[in-house]
Amino acid sequence: MKLRELPIGAVVRDTRSPIPFLVAAQDHPGYQGTTLYAQRIVELGCLDAAEPGRGKEGPWKQAYRYGNNDYACSNVHQWLNSTADVWYAPTHAFDQPPTEEFTRYGEVPYASRPGFLAQFSDIFREALLRVDVPYLSRTERDAGEIVTVSALAFLPSRTELGKGDEHGCAEGVMFPLAYDYSVYRTTMTEELLSKYGRAINPDRPTARYDAPQIYDPKYGWWYWLRTANMGYDFLNRVASPYGALSYTYSNNDSVGIRPVLNLDGEVEVQSNGRFQEVFTMIP
Question: pLDDT of 209-225, one tens digit each?
Answer without folding.
Answer: 676 667 776 777 899 99
